[in-house]
Structure prediction request, 406 residues.
Amino acid sequence: MTEEQKTPEINILNAAKEIFERKGMAAARMQEIADEAGINKAMLHYYYRSKQLLFEAVFKSAFSMLAPQLNEIINADTSIFEKIRNFSSNYISFVIKHPYLPNFIIQELNRNPDFVKKLVAEKNFPNISKFKQQVNEKVADGIIKPIKAEQLFINIISLNIFPFIGALLLTGFINVNEEAYKQLMEERKTEVADFIINAIKLK
Amino acid sequence: MTEEQKTPEINILNAAKEIFERKGMAAARMQEIADEAGINKAMLHYYYRSKQLLFEAVFKSAFSMLAPQLNEIINADTSIFEKIRNFSSNYISFVIKHPYLPNFIIQELNRNPDFVKKLVAEKNFPNISKFKQQVNEKVADGIIKPIKAEQLFINIISLNIFPFIGALLLTGFINVNEEAYKQLMEERKTEVADFIINAIKLK
DNA sequence: AAATTTGCTAACCATTAGGTTAAACTAAAT
DNA sequence: ATTTAGTTTAACCTAATGGTTAGCAAATTT
Prediction:
């Protein structure tokens, strides 16, 4: 898993991502990250001072990979149905490639609630006001059933993210192997959007 | 937060639940659990040998609180629409009272994938075969739109669980305070079922 | 070429955390 | 009253872990 990297900073960051995302901040060991990066443990401190700072760098980097995806659904200049289709398809494709990412973010956010406030304060933090306006419009126009934009947003996010966070639990419940579950996720690239649109479209 | 308990075992278990569910296995400290329980640290080992065993007791207890909820949707002798309504309402009511529980389970399951296998092997582990059959029937009868039972199941679980696991993230995105978010969750007791039923019902 | 800064390593340090132990205390049984 | 079994505590032990340091090597600067 250890590929050559341009700079030691990036090399360390990637190794730390790997370990932090899989184990979480508390369970991750600096030595393990050093091994993954193929370097001496002291180097981690040389480049990133402390575990906390290294963790924050990883977290920021991880979060900044997800934020653009969310802005897609929020600020794109497309119809609401198209947004839902695009987001579901794109997001699921993305997460299939980074399976530990959503769980990592949720987990660490829960462990450190103040972190949310810091994130919200930053620019580029997704804001749903545009999406909200769009939903309200379509409801008023009789194109979609009455629904609060907040609830619809929560539903979209839930249907797209949870199947990855709860993958292990769900494979247990529906009693399929990893391969079959992956296949289900592939299907969801279109399935989820269909489901949502069916739920809200006024025929 | 420290109330009098019947037996020291239960007292310890409750304290451990509190800490483990909030911080996770790795970040939880035995001393912290002892403090929460109002006892000496050695007592934890006296009654539960090791951190690992104490953790497993907590996990089992937590999981066994959720399993019955799931059997509701899976094995009840009611119509599929009723199941969805009952489950959503009951589950959300339950989790509002135990907000850390789902996150804890998911998190520790992800950290220790082999745990799933152990759980699945146990009796009382939910099995969706009955639900599956019911869905297929209704699809064949033209009562609901064609959908794989597995996908519907994943959707139901996602819509009910994720809003609690991702609460902090979602409050950030939709920019509401804790109180307003709780209100949204209250609404979801009926909102979620309506959404799902709209999505699948053939009119 | 000498000096100096930067990158890197091995050994070390201090603290923390899980776990143990031996002694003390309590209360029931003899 | 004495024994005995179960319970509780303080003090201790050991391993692991995040972090530091002193020195060396390789560039970079002057």
Summary: Residues 132 and 149 of chain B are 5 Å apart (CA to CA).
